[in-house]
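Project standup — Tuesday

K.O.: blocked on the structure for the chain from last sprint. Re-posting the sequence here as requested.
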Amino acid sequence: MRPKLFLAVLTVLGAIALFSCDDSQPEIRLQAYETGAIRPAGWIRNQMRRDLAEGFAGQLDLLTKRAGDSVFLRHRDLDWDGGDWNRDPRLKTYPDMFRWWDGESEGNWRLGLVEMAYMANDPKAIEKISSYLNAVIEKSLSDDHYIGMFGPSARYKVIGDLWTQSLILKTLISYYHFTGNEAILNAVIAAVDKMIEAYHVFEDHQNIYDINRNGHSLASYTDVAEELYRITQDTKYIELVRILYDDFSKSALIAGSKESAREAVDIQLPQLLNPNKPFVEHAVHVVEQIRAPLFLGYHIPGDSIYARANRMAFEKLSGCITPSGNCIGDEWIFGRVGSPEIGHEYCVMTELLATYASYVEKTGDVSIADQMEHLAFNAAQGARTADGKGINYISTDNRMQARGNGCYYSPTHEERAVCCNPNAVRFMPLYVKNMWMQYERGGEKGIMALLYGPGVLTTDFQGTELKIEQQTDYPVEEAMTFTVTPARTLEIPLAFRVPAWAEQTVVEAPGATVSDEEDGIVFVRKVWNPGDRITIRFKSSIRQHTATNGEQYFTKGAILYALPIEGTAHCLRSYGHGGFADTEYVAVNDADFEKYCISRSTIDSMQAEECPASDYCIWDAPRQKIEADFYLRNGTRERVVLIPFGNTVLRRVTFPMRHIQ
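H.V.: unblocked you, prediction finished:
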């Protein structure tokens, strides 16, 4: 138990009560809710709605053919003409390698679109994605149950088929959860059965990954199998993941030196279990592929080799994280440690968030949720525009310019690869999906608030309909009110995660029994009446941290603070409609980047203040600022203002200590 002050305020008693519990807490088991049970509210819903109406999230198919070519309806065969890809010089060297790329772009985008559309309750976006997915289902019924992007002579044979199949299957599974249409689920199950038959998965399953050398396939098909196992409880999906991962781990081609395959080796079992081998490969593959041993370690009892691999994976991963919360990778990790100077990819943010969520659910270690929030409210917001019209493909924490090599802001990043923009559409829906989880602890079953932010959980508890609404402007506000509305009076154990940065936690719950904090969780028990409320207030102070480059940075609560650098915008390309453009930013004065250092007394000089801003979205303008005494290189003291990382374009996050002669 962390040494911090915890206050449980029982207003029905008119007094403050302190509770203490034994530290030997039974293991807590968590289970995620199905997609659609949790919907956003407040600033998260507003951001999603604007992204759909005005940003690239709702219009990516109109901005680039890479996401709008309907590849899952217009199947491509081995002799396809390739369209615009005929002009891609990479095809001269790798004629088959990039056939799947449009399926990646479109698959990830449509997955994000279906989830964002339904979560934000956007009728136009719902109609758009529903029409497309219904057509995909209809086509599969007349096409031997195949759901993918390739024609008959290419499917189950070419690189990327397994990968792109899994993306559209994940999209359809989410669509099933939102609609409840059993025909969708049946089509997905039939398509997976067809894949199992085509690859002889439960027989000799020879060289699945020698054929599918795209390393994304493992993680994405693991996600498909896990979702189908949740729904059907059919253990064949556990065995499917085991075979895929074992085949992946022993594939000589993946472990070889070929450039097209080298990104996959880090998560092969022999490499992963080697404590002396740091992560070196393609960052997005590394963080997503961890979900395979994570899934197997959870479902195969005992101290299995998969459980050991999982522990080693997270030990290695922990050293690769930047101050803003993402795993480095520009595009490769190369054995480096997380640094504010090294680029990190938006694709990685989405897959890292998914891996963190899987880890929390399977281990019960809710402390990882701190990292999920830090990633969501810093790295992810700091690499996108507030209006949703562009992101950085590659972002850095310390940034004097956002230009060149995918570092500028774009709605497509078509010149490089249309992968990060589709994945950015998936990010906030993924956060919302994991805001609540079901828990079981010592025979008690209840509901846990894992991630904070405005949203609504609608579920069934012990046969009774239940809605819990969270009202807050978290993370800029460290208080939240929960309104509990069961269909009838009902006893429901509720649990709330206490962030590691919370120095004081105050719970106001009239008539409830409130426990002291236990391993980062506070439990609130009561017979709830419709409309009962719980208010939780966390108190944080400004904290100073040391980055891997030896410099210092500052956080308060879940927010990383940065010094904004004045920059000039240059339009690189206009898309001709909707205000979309590729835009780079360059510092007005390069000297501003190296201007300041700090002293040991800087943190003592810091004052946090609220700023007036729009209530529509907390990232439209800074809602908070920190004033502090910094020093110029000549020793002159100067008062500066730091703002949330997510409100910055150009910025300095880490600062050297002042050297006194």
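K.O.: great, moving the ticket to review. The two ends are 43 Å apart (CA to CA). The chain has 19 helices and 31 strands.
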